[in-house]
Amino acid sequence: MHLLIVLGSPRKNGNSEILAQHVAKGMEEGGGTVEYIRLNGLTLSPCQGCGGCEKTGECVIKDDMGAIYERADAADRILVASPVYFYALTAQTKAFIDRFQARWSRRYLLDNRFRLEEQRRGYLLSVAATKGAKVFDCSLLTMRYFYEAMDMTFADSFLLKGVDQRGAVRNFPEELARAETFGREIATGLR
């Protein structure tokens, strides 16, 4: 079982990344493998809505996204880790997701279904500074449709409210342990 963790925060070693590392630890303890993509250090142009992917299912923009498509297609599980910015995913994460319009085209316009028999699954890990009742609603809806476009099931989410300062999640050992359990359950198929 191979997990691709997509780090969507512009902040290195922030709360979402710390939690993602604990998920990775649990995943590896459960017998899985893990690799990371840090979006903030890559050159990712936004989707241009040009329709270039409609005939081939491949994006015509030549940037770092080409390698990301390959890594995402190869993964058995994907975990997108993003803090909440203005009640939504970060700009880096949203640009990444929008570029999967090529995979939407592959599925819906070209009827090219992908690895269905393998029951691939996707997850969201998100941290919010505030404790609003709907703070994760936008992110959850976006992720549901992102994974659907990739012929994956949006299986579960790890959400944590009320954590703001960089590294503050280290003060919540029960959440770090919960993240490790989350990773083990991904590896063993319980999530």
Structure description:
The protein has a 5-stranded parallel beta sheet, sandwiched between helices. The chain has one domain (2-188): Rossmann fold (3-Layer(aba) Sandwich). 37% of the residues lie in helices and 19% in strands. Strand 1 (2-7), helix 1 and strand 2 form a beta-alpha-beta unit. It has 6 helices and 5 strands. It is globular and about 50 Å long. The protein is of the alpha/beta class and 191 residues long. It has helices at 15-29, 65-74, 91-98, 101-109, 137-149, 173-188, and strands at 2-7, 33-38, 77-83, 121-128, 153-161.
Secondary-structure topology with pairs:
Blueprint: E1 2-7, H1 15-29, E2 33-38, H2 65-74, E3 77-83, H3 91-98, H4 101-109, E4 121-128, H5 137-149, E5 153-161, H6 173-188
Parallel strand pairs: 1-2, 1-3, 3-4, 4-5
Helix pairs in contact: 1-6
State the strand order across the main sheet: 2-1-3-4-5
Question: What is the mean pLDDT?
Answer: 96
Helix content: 25-40%
Helix count from the secondary structure assignment: 6
- Overall tally of domains: 1
Strand and helix order: EHEHEHHEHEH
Helix/strand class: alpha/beta
Strand content: 15-25%
Q: Roughly how many Å is the radius of gyration?
A: 16 Å
* CATH C-level category: Alpha Beta
User: Low-confidence runs (pLDDT<50, min 5 residues)?
Assistant: none
**What is the number of beta strands?**
5
* Shape estimate: globular
| Architecture per CATH nomenclature, i.e. the level-2 architecture | 3-Layer(aba) Sandwich
* Biggest sheet features: 5 strands, parallel
Could you give me the name of the CATH homologous superfamily?
Answer: Flavodoxin domain
